[in-house]
C-alpha cells in the first residue's frame, strides 16, 4: 500500500523513465494492474504504463475496456491529466476490430458527460467523437436514427450500467450532441453542428485541442475584432425618425 501522492509521482514517470531501462518490464504488471484498479487519477496515470506493456510486451488484460469505460465519470473533463487520458483513449479505440456496441457505449457515455463539461473540453471531445464515427461506421446509427429518443427520460441507454455490452447504447441516439448545438459558446455550437452533415473520411487532428484551456478560449474571444453594436434603439415615429419631428404631425408611416 503506497500513499496516493507517491503513487502519482511514480506513475507519472514510469512509462518513460523506468520501464525502458528494465530488463523485464513485465515485472511491473502486478503493480500497474493494481494501480489501474484503484480508480480516479491513479487509474488514469496507470494507463501509460499499461499501454506499453500491452503494445510492446503482449500483456493480456481481461476486461480492460470495461475498466476504461468505468473511468469515464464527470471529473474526466476537469482533471489535470485530461490530455494524457484522451490521448491514450484515442489509441485504445483506434482498432477497427472493436465491436460496435463497445465503441457506441464510449460515444454515448462521453456525450452524456459532455452535457456538464466546460467549453474547452467540449471543443476537444466533439472532434474525438467524430473520429470514432469515422473509424466505426456501424455506430452512425446513433446519429441517423429518425425516431430516436428526444430526452433522457425516453433514452434506452443505461448510464449506470458498468458493462458496455449491457448499456444498450446502440439502441439510443445522440440527442446530447444535438442539445450542444444550442450551447452558449458559438464555437461549441458550431462544432456540434458538424454531425448534421456527412462526415469527411479524413480524421480531425485533436492533438492541438487536448490541452486547450479556458484562458486560451477567453484570450481568443478578447482579441476578436467585433463590429460596432448599437446600444440604444428608438423606433421611428416620423419621416426622419426624430421623436418631436414636425413631419410626424402631418405624415404617417403605414
Question: How many DSSP E strands?
Answer: 0
User: What string, H for helix and E for strand, traces the elements in order?
Assistant: HHHHHHHHHH
- Low-confidence sequence ranges: none
What helical percentage do the residues reach?
40-55%
Cα distance spanning the termini: 83 Å
Estimate the strand proportion: under 5%
- Calculate Rg over CA atoms: 25 Å
Shape: elongated
Oligomer: single chain
Mean pLDDT: 83
Could you say which structural class the secondary elements and strand pairing correspond to? mainly alpha
* Biggest sheet overview: none
Helix segment tally: 10
Features:
254 residues, mainly alpha, 10 helices, CCAAT-binding_factor, transmembrane helix
Structural write-up:
It comes from Himantopus himantopus. The protein is mainly alpha-helical and 254 residues long. It has a domain at 98-215. The chain is built from 10 helices and no strands. It has helices spanning 4-18, 29-36, 40-57, 64-70, 82-92, 100-114, 119-135, 175-180, 186-192, 214-222. Helix 3 runs parallel beside helix 5 (82-92) and helix 7 (119-135) runs parallel beside helix 9. The longest helix is centred in the first third of the chain and has 18 residues, at 40-57. The model has no long low-confidence stretch (mean pLDDT 83).
